[in-house]
Specification:
422 residues, Rossmann fold, 8 helices, globular
Length: 422
């Protein structure tokens, strides 16, 4: 994989979550400022606005709270994506809202994240929202979690306060599926332990937040064993010059694909071998997640959008009965016998809600097995029946082929996001 590693493995997607006033927007502003990812005129505008508000400090939150309603209320409402880079890595931040009524927004922002960053206010300690954010990140199988204990400057950089929050959260995390956890004491406003090491906390010997973000290892988090290539588009130019050209474009969802590999096209079951793989205008010797490539086969088999190319001896089993955890996003409740559209990788079908097994209380992890519907922002385990077989894997194995969205056929609006159990 050394041929393209330098361009593929240096991106980290992380999602931030925190309660109101935990300093999330300020922290992102600090990361952007100290990594020199903002322009001088942006900083001047923020400094000017801070002075006009009577602050004796630069309000870095103004760099990120882009919506006027966010700025006026001092809260984050929608998911906002921020981009910045250091010499070691590129970053995409999904800045997600903390309010319980925006759970669906957080699910959207964290669904593709390699790392979840949960902020807590050192003065408040762990709150119900902190636990809820950790539960959602665990459900979404975000492989790395950082608990940033913010506003340490307001508790006199107390090691005792940090140790108490560290112990409490670590104990809570043992109930969840969190493979990698780091707890870092910071002050986003003053910059302690964000990019530069703090002299105010000599008792803390761990890495700064930026050092951790730059060095956390995410290459092995993706499924590089089970080859999965959902076909998004069949490329067949009309020109006579390219009459023999036939390629299948899409994003590699799992495994490593190489020319010469024996593959099967699902659901037809036709087999062939990969003749070559194109990345933009050049031929490459291997492709792996999340590369978008064009795959060519030796044989002229029937392949269309929604099909999946996999290995002959390691292919997903087609299934019409889906057992999944669903985050419901519509104000109209989800109920049994409801009919919806489902989009799974590049395949779209219709689906019937067979049964709601339980509703999950994401604050206590209690399973309400008497629930007969899911309301907006609620999460539950649901049985579905699709009109055509889906080529899926368990979400725990592959976050791409193990997830789907539900769509209201009448309006075309996305009303649910699902994670497959079976």
């Amino acid at each position: 994989m050394s041929t393209v590693k330098s361009t593929q493995m240096d991106l980290l997607r992380f999602a931030t979550a925190g309660s109101v006033d935990d300093g999330k927007s300020t922290l992102i502003g600090r990361l952007l400022l100290d990594s020199k990812s903002i322009f001088a005129d942006q900083l001047e505008a923020v400094e000017s606005t801070s002075k006009s508000k009577g602050y004796d400090y630069t309000d870095l939150a103004l760099l990120t709270d882009g919506l006027r309603s966010e700025r006026e209320q001092g809260i984050t409402i929608d998911v906002a994506y921020r981009y910045f880079a250091t010499p070691n890595r590129k970053f995409i931040i999904a800045d997600t809202p903390g309010h319980v009524q925006y759970t669906r927004n957080m699910v959207t922002g964290a669904s593709t994240a390699d790392l979840g960053l949960v902020l807590v206010d050192a003065r408040q300690g762990l709150t119900e929202q902190s636990r809820r954010h950790a539960v959602i990140l665990s459900l979404l199988r975000v492989p790395h979690l950082v608990l940033a204990v913010n506003k340490m400057d307001l508790v006199d950089f107390s090691q005792e306060v940090y140790d108490k929050i560290h112990a409490e959260f670590t104990a809570f995390a043992t109930k969840l599926n969190i493979p990698d956890l780091a707890v870092i004491p910071i002050s986003a406003l003053a910059g302690d332990n964000v990019v530069n090491r703090s002299e105010n906390m000599p008792w803390y010997s761990g890495s700064t937040l930026m050092h951790h973000l730059e060095n956390v290892h995410v290459a092995s988090d993706r499924d590089l064993i089970d080859a999965r290539f959902p076909v998004q588009y069949v490329i067949r130019p009309k020109s006579d010059e390219f009459h023999d050209y036939r390629g299948y474009a899409g994003m590699v969802a799992g495994g490593v694909l190489k020319p010469g590999d024996e593959v099967v096209v699902l659901p037809s079951g036709m087999t062939s071998k990969i003749s070559r793989i194109d990345l933009f205008d050049k031929e490459i010797m291997e492709a792996f997640p999340p590369m978008s490539v064009t795959v060519h086969l030796e044989d002229d088999v029937d392949v269309s959008r929604g099909d999946m190319i996999a290995r002959v001896k390691n292919a997903p089993q087609p299934s019409q009965d889906i057992d999944a955890m669903i985050c419901w996003m519509s104000t109209t409740p989800l109920k049994p016998r409801q009919k919806l559209a489902i989009k799974h990788t590049t395949r779209t079908a219709r689906v019937l809600v067979k049964d709601i097994q339980y509703r999950l209380d994401i604050n206590t992890l209690h399973r309400d097995q008497d629930a007969n519907e899911l309301g907006v922002n609620e999460i539950g385990r649901v049985q579905l029946r699709t009109t055509v077989p889906l080529l899926c894997d368990p979400y725990s194995q592959n976050r791409t082929t193990g997830s789907f969205i539900l769509i209201d056929e009448a309006t075309g609006v996305t009303v649910g996001a699902g994670m497959i159990n079976n």
